[in-house]
Write a structure and sequence with these properties.
5 helices; 15 strands; 31% helix; alpha+beta
């Protein structure tokens, strides 16, 4: 009884076979079929190889959400060289709440404003990258994934200029980071700079080079828009202004996973001439504001299951297509040959 049940089950399974085998006596191999098979296998190998490269490739996914963190401090990373002596200039931050931030984290180092050859090469390379980033925005994805570090080499000490570098923490509100004449001192209504103790205005020179300016924790893979910027003052009484919009960023790649900030910037410069109605103070002013939106940048790649499905689609599609084309071409050849033979043997009336 059990044997009969197994036999019936086996017979039922055989009837459900979707891939019946044809006896070898009914199979005929042809040269054309072998040629088509060789071409099909070649196409399969090439496309499978290219599909594997697509599977290995990664891309950056951008998402946006509201930034709900307003209580933490914002870190400002500064590395700026000004063509004036360190004792004549001062740098500090004044935020929107008229709160003066102590600049204890900044160091004033006497340096030479002119770069040595090694640093000049780095500076020109950085400017070239910045130029390409403005044209080809997809280049930023490559920099994210490569985690390029953008630290210039140390400069040679001299006394003709001042390198202001370091970091400071500010409230997460709009503010103004500036470098101007005289050291800053606290004031009941904000702050002031002791410009009266500096020499004549003719000695002012706010030509500067921004080796690095970023917000948040410094991370490899982010080249800030102002990195490598160099401005030459045409007048002793010159004002440089940078209007910066900061965007909180969560970066998650296979090499880096952290929170930082990116920013966009617009620039303006003018000569201070009170007689002509151009008022202001000589110096370098960076007015920043913080966006309420956060950008999440995530590196992704194709899942394994999707790669296998696409691979099966390639193999099955080429098999089906080449089989149909081979059958159609064979049928057309047979029809043409048959008609040709009928035309030869047609009786003459």
């Amino acid at each position: 009884m059990r044997r009969l049940t197994k036999k019936k089950a086996l017979t039922l399974v055989k009837e459900l076979d979707a891939f019946p085998k044809v006896p070898e006596s009914y199979v005929e191999s042809t040269a054309s079929g072998g040629t088509v098979s060789l071409i099909a296998f070649t196409f399969m190998a090439v496309l499978a190889f290219l599909e594997f490269f697509v599977y290995r490739h990664t891309w950056m996914k951008y998402e946006y959400e509201v930034d709900r963190d307003f209580s933490s401090k914002l870190r400002i990373n500064v590395d700026i060289t000004v063509a004036m002596r360190c004792q004549y200039i001062g740098a500090d931050v004044l935020d929107l709440a008229e709160t003066m931030v102590a600049s204890d984290g900044l160091q004033y180092e006497p340096v030479n404003f002119e770069l040595p050859p090694q640093q000049r090469i780095w500076h020109m390379t950085l400017l070239h990258i910045q130029e390409r980033l403005r044209v080809e925005h997809a280049l930023q994805d490559v920099i994210f994934k490569a985690a390029i570090k953008g630290a210039p080499p140390d400069s040679t000490a001299s006394l003709s200029a001042c390198r202001i570098h370091g970091h400071l923490y500010v409230n997460k509100v709009a503010g103004n980071f500036h470098i101007t004449v005289g050291k800053s001192i606290p004031h009941p209504r904000g702050h002031a700079h002791l410009a009266a103790l500096v020499q004549q205005m003719e000695t002012y020179n706010f030509s500067h080079r921004i080796d690095h300016l970023s917000f948040g924790e410094p991370l490899p893979g982010i080249i800030s828009p102002l990195d490598g910027t160099e401005k030459i003052a045409t007048d002793s009484n010159h004002m440089f202004q940078y209007f910066i919009t900061i965007v909180p960023t969560k970066l998650n790649t296979y090499k880096v996973s952290a929170e930082t900030h990116q920013y966009s910037v617009t620039e303006r410069e003018r000569v201070i001439n009170h007689a002509a109605g151009s008022h202001g103070v000589s110096g370098i002013f960076m007015k920043y504001d913080i966006s309420s939106l956060m950008v999440k940048v995530t590196e992704q790649h194709m899942p394994l299951w999707q790669f296998l499905v696409r691979l099966c689609g390639i193999i099955g599609g080429i098999f089906s297509t080449t089989g149909m084309i081979h059958g159609l071409v064979g049928f057309l050849v047979d029809v043409v040959c048959c008609r040709f033979q009928m035309g030869i043997y047609k009786p003459v009336s």
